[in-house]
Write a structure and sequence with these properties.
Length: 312
């Protein structure tokens, strides 16, 4: 596969319907796909593309199945389908946490195509510390910055602090070694957008919720990306969003899970059955049922590393 140059920065493209009622998913699914670059840091083949349909052009990411590296615990050639399944479940929640994602043929065969989302600039970059005394741990590369606490706002989503307890507006994740014998506490913002993602990750059994997979957009929305290692039948939840572990789910999650359970017994379940195995869709229903019955965020099982590596 040719190796195009590194993709340049592009602006945010809203995921809603465009002119003439053509939605982003329509353009991604039916548009002419042209490769413009490659994301070289990714572990699998990730190509930056343009999709053109009915006079509308969208920037997007194309991950061909042929470029997927084999994994020991997931069937070969299934990551693209899992990414699409994660989008469908996200849409069923009504939270819109995953950019529009489709499965289609492309220049290098069948693959996942997802709307490109550029992130908001990190206002804290350069000062190294925010008002609560936590050092910015977003990475400074635009993939983990600008989040906030409460109902969402400006500020980092992840941080390191040398305090033993998180400051107000933050939730503790894990204590980490930061070099020269120093230890710091990794924290994430107590942000409703992150909390919704934590619920979604518990539903889809996300084995890789890194900080770099959090995209705070220019319009204040937060998106999660890279959902190829999801929907396993075994508990493989690995995430940086453990701050609410064992706490009651937010009130808004309860009707969402009820509606999701009903949809899994209908059209959504049938569509997911085309992307996942019967055992995986059954395990999905079981996770939703467990969350509804427990009413709590899950806790690390102890049978599987709870933090992805690298974490950011």
């Amino acid at each position: 596969m040719p190796a195009p140059e590194r993709v340049p920065e592009v602006g945010l493209i809203a995921p809603g319907s465009g002119r003439d009622g053509i939605g982003a998913a329509d353009v991604l699914l039916r548009g002419e796909l042209t490769v413009r670059g490659q994301i070289r840091e990714a572990s699998n083949a990730v190509l930056y593309c343009e999709a053109v349909y009915e006079g509308r052009t969208l920037a997007c990411v194309y991950k061909p199945v042929a470029g997927e590296r084999p994994l020991w615990d997931f069937p070969d050639g299934t990551l693209a389908q899992r990414e699409v399944a994660a989008y469908l479940v996200s849409e069923a929640t009504g939270w819109g946490l995953v950019p529009p994602t489709v499965l289609r043929d492309g220049p290098y065969g069948e693959g996942m195509v997802q709307l490109w989302i550029d992130v908001a600039p990190d206002d804290s970059e350069g000062d190294g510390e925010d008002a609560s005394g936590t050092e910015d741990a977003s990475g400074g590369d635009g993939t983990g910055g600008s989040g906030g606490s409460g109902d969402g706002g400006d500020g980092p989503l992840l941080a390191l602090t040398e305090d033993t307890e998180p400051a107000p507006g933050w939730k503790a994740v894990v204590e980490a070694e930061v070099g020269e014998g120093r230890r710091a506490l990794l924290v994430h913002a107590d942000d409703i957008r992150l909390r919704r993602l934590a619920v979604l990750d518990a539903v889809i059994n996300n084995a890789d919720r890194k900080g770099g997979h959090l995209l705070p957009a220019l319009d204040g929305r937060l998106y999660g990306i890279d959902h190829g290692v999801t929907f396993h039948t075994e508990d493989k939840l690995r995430t940086l969003l453990w701050g609410w572990a064992g706490e009651p789910l937010p009130a808004e999650a309860r009707p969402v899970l009820d509606a999701l359970a009903a949809q899994l017994d209908g059209a959504l379940g049938a569509r997911l059955g085309e992307l996942l195995t019967a055992a995986e869709t059954d395990a999905l229903r079981a996770r939703v049922r467990h969350l509804r019955e427990s009413g709590k965020h899950p806790e690390p099982s102890g049978d599987w590393p709870s933090i992805p590596w690298p974490p950011v």
